[in-house]
């Protein structure tokens, strides 16, 4: 079973490297080949059988999800869609958001899932409610950058095929309520409302909701930073650990109850009653979590083990693990696109691996500590691969947090579930005790997360490094006394000493990051780094946190020599706070230093210049008298090396372009121009374009942005001058190597395209 499940997993993984979705016939051909192989007598045929079936099933499943694609002629137009609210709504002061299961689109019967937001909704939005809504929709299209989350992959995995908002100028029509169409989510919403009613809001109350129903809305990014820095992410949402604690708790309760029922022991064996009750409790708790991937894995594992007790069978742990793996992939093979899938199954595999070959005869502290040590070390390669960072204090933090969670928080959460279902006012006391206990734990974790050496940031450049590092930790985790065990350290040396590709003196790399409608770019010389603008911060979406910091980690950048914020618009400065908080920034230049009172910010004034590693930097704009002109006060930076020039222009418009022409004339010439004001029609004067005469023009824009940037007239003018034009919508992050070897562009979306990308 183990070999077959791993082969099935491999077949699923193969499809994830395709840049296109193969025809459905490939699924049938692969399935037919598997059938023929099944009848053969070829040695190790289970490996080939699993590989073919995994690939065939994933192709078929992907086709079922892609049956509907929003026609381009319906994008950004008001369309009437009938459907049902299928998820817990996330409610904020500005808008509510939820998943909508459609029944018809423009009166055509179409079933798919879309993500909607509803600003200033005048109605209570509840799971199961059926509506006829006027919507403005777009296809799923998200920024793509090295190191960042691929939202398009997440949406495809969850069957979400479009996103949009309710058009408030039209009248939405409520049809009827169907509470039991999505009974689990309806129950979860009911519990969520009761938690909010009984539990006084606090800094940790959102985590109590997460621990009871698995809903993590309203948790700030700073809280996730604490968990990442301490390696305790797995504790704060319903997962295998929580279900394991629940099973253990029910076991203790049943054993205690049996003391008062001696006659029952004669009729039904204690072990079977324990197994049945624990299985039921685990199933109910997993349902409350919405059957997330970690919950699915844990539930299947525990179910298999408990069923073996009920039916008096013995099943090896690796067999249970492989069965859980197979069933999770059978439910949704695209779970492999989720980091929680890999963390969940790898964690359990490490625990089983740690038990193999180790005697439990001696009952001492190491029997409890070893699994945690194994997980801490064993997840090192995977954490670096997925998150480019590793908590060096996770062993200490988990040694405190796991028993605290298991004995002082989760029991109150379990009790609260029962009391909330009964709608008992005593739930308030149980919730309060859980929250106060969690608050104390949070103080400890927050303190630990602030240690200067809490995090090791390191990127793994490719799969080879991941494989080599994994081999290394598995060797290190072999039983004590195994010959050559410490040779595993040699396998870790490549990741310890890896550095991103070196930039030579007199050269630099320009990276225009894909931050949607906004601007963020990174310039690297041999020994220095400059950030020019940082994208937007809108609601929970912070481009500094989501895009720039992961990119810096991938590049191995530990500090910023200079940050330039061209002007005060949110789409240029919004991500700055997250970067300033997490990465040392030695110098901050901006046209709006008053917006950064906590920093030693200074003006970017025309004439300021410096040299880094043979690369010349110079501010061309604004002058001291041009600092209060809005967009036209944007910092303009010229970068020159090896007879090549780059011009970063912020949001300057026509008046500033005229001033630059008058001041610099032909000296404005540049090989690469980041288009002023995203290519708006108020910028890109013909004379300015002629003086710059760029070979490449780069537009930092969002997919179908409401400003319709870049404007067709501006695109036409650049085209007349023979410029090669790229935009972040179609190219993703755009990188240029600028130096003696010329200009070498790299378009991230095109080079890393997968079949789910728009």
* C-alpha termini separation: 37 Å
Number of domains: 4
Mean pLDDT: 90
Radius of gyration: 29 Å
In the predicted model, the low-confidence regions spanning at least 5 consecutive residues are none
CATH architecture of the largest domain: 4-Layer Sandwich
Question: How do the strands of the widest beta sheet line up side by side?
Answer: 18-17-16-13-12-11-26-27
| Number of extended strands | 27
Structural class: alpha+beta
Under CATH, the topology of the largest domain is which? Metallo-beta-lactamase, Chain A
Query: What is the CATH superfamily of the largest domain?
Result: Ribonuclease Z/Hydroxyacylglutathione hydrolase-like
Main β-sheet: number of strands, strand sense, barrel status? 8 strands, mixed
Residues in helices, as a percent range: 40-55%
Distinct helical segment count:
27
What CATH first level of the largest domain would be assigned? Alpha Beta
Notes on the protein architecture:
By secondary structure, the chain is an alpha+beta fold. The protein has four domains: 2-65, no CATH class; 72-181, Beta Barrel (OB fold (Dihydrolipoamide Acetyltransferase, E2P)), CATH 2.40.50; 187-356 and 405-452, no CATH class; 508-751, 4-Layer Sandwich (Metallo-beta-lactamase, Chain A), CATH 3.60.15.10. It has an eight-stranded mixed beta sheet with strand order 18-17-16-13-12-11-26-27. The chain has a seven-stranded mixed beta sheet with strand order 19-20-21-22-23-24-25. Helix 2 runs antiparallel to helix 3 and helix 16 (394-421) runs antiparallel to helix 17. It starts with a helix and ends in a 7-residue tail after the last helix. The model has no long low-confidence stretch (mean pLDDT 90).
């Amino acid at each position: 079973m183990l070999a077959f499940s791993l082969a099935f997993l491999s077949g699923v993984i193969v499809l994830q490297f395709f840049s296109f979705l193969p025809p459905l016939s490939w699924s049938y051909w692969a399935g037919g080949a598997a059938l023929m192989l099944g009848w053969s007598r070829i040695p190790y045929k289970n490996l080939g059988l699993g590989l073919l079936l995994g690939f065939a099933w994933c192709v078929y499943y992907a086709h079922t999800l892609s049956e509907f694609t929003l026609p381009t002629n319906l994008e950004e137009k008001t369309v009437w869609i009938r459907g049902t609210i299928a998820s817990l709504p996330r409610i904020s002061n500005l808008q509510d958001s939820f998943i909508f299961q459609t029944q018809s689109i423009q009166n055509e019967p179409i079933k798919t899932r879309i993500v909607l937001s509803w600003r200033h909704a005048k109605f209570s939005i509840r799971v199961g409610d059926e509506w006829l809504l006027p919507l403005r929709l777009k296809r799923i299209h998200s920024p793509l950058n090295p190191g960042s989350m691929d939202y398009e992959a997440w949406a495809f995995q969850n069957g979400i095929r479009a996103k949009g908002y309710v058009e408030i100028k039209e009248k939405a029509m409520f049809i009827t309520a169907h509470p039991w169409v999505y009974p689990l989510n309806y129950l979860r919403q009911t519990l969520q409302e009761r938690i909010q009613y009984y539990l006084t809001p606090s800094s940790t109350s959102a985590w109590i909701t997460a621990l009871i129903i698995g809903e993590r809305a309203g948790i700030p990014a700073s809280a996730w930073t604490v968990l990442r820095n301490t390696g305790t992410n797995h504790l704060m949402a319903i997962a295998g650990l929580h279900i394991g604690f629940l099973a253990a708790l029910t076991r203790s309760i049943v054993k205690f109850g049996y003391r008062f029922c001696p006659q029952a022991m004669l009729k039904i064996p204690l072990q079977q009653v324990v197994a049945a009750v624990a299985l039921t409790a685990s199933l109910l708790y997993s349902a409350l979590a919405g059957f997330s991937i970690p919950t699915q894995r844990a539930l299947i594992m525990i179910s298999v083990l408990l069923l073996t007790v009920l039916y008096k069978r013995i099943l090896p742990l690796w067999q249970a693990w492989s069965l859980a793996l197979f069933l999770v992939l059978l439910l949704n093979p695209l779970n492999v696109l989720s980091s929680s899938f890999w963390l969940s199954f790898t964690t359990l595999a490490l625990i089983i691996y740690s038990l193999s070959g180790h005697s439990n005869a001696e009952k001492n502290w190491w029997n409890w500590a070893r699994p945690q040590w194994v997980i801490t070390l064993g997840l090192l390669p995977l954490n670096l691969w997925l998150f480019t960072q590793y908590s060096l204090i996770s062993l200490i933090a988990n040694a405190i947090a796991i028993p605290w969670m298991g004995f002082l928080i989760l029991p109150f959460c379990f009790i609260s579930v029962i009391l909330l279902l009964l709608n008992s006012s005593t739930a308030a006391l149980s919730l309060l005790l859980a929250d106060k206990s969690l608050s104390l734990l949070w103080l400890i974790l927050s303190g630990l997360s602030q240690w200067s050496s809490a995090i090791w940031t390191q990127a793994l450049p490719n799969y080879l490094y991941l494989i080599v590092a994994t081999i290394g930790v598995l060797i290190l985790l072999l039983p004590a006394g195994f010959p050559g065990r410490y040779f595993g350290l040699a396998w870790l040396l490549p990741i310890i000493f890896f550095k991103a590709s070196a930039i030579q003196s007199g050269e630099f790399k320009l990276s225009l990051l894909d931050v949607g409608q906004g601007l963020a770019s990174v310039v690297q010389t041999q020994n220095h780094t400059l950030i020019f603008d940082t994208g937007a911060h809108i609601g929970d979406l912070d481009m500094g946190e989501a895009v720039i910091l992961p990119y810096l980690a991938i590049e191995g950048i530990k500090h910023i020599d200079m940050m330039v914020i061209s002007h005060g618009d949110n789409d240029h400065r919004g991500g700055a706070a997250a970067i300033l908080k997490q990465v040392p920034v030695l110098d901050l230049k901006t046209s709006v230093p008053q917006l950064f009172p906590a920093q030693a910010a200074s003006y970017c004034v025309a004439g300021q210049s410096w040299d880094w590693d043979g690369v010349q930097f110079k501010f061309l704009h604004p002058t001291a008298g041009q600092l209060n002109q809005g967009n036209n006060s944007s910092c303009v930076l010229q970068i020159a090396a090896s007879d090549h020039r780059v011009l970063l222009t912020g949001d300057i418009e026509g008046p500033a372009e005229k001033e630059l022409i008058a001041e610099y004339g032909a000296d404005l010439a540049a090989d690469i121009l980041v288009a002023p004001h995203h290519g708006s029609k108020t910028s890109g004067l013909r004379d300015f374009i002629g003086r710059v005469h760029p070979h490449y023009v780069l537009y930092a824009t969002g997919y179908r942005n409401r400003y319709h940037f870049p404007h067709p007239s501006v695109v036409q003018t650049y085209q007349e001058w023979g410029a090669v034009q790229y935009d972040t919508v179609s190219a993703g992050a755009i990188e240029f190597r600028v130096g003696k070897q010329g200009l070498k562009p790299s378009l991230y979306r095109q080079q890393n395209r997968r079949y789910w990308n728009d």
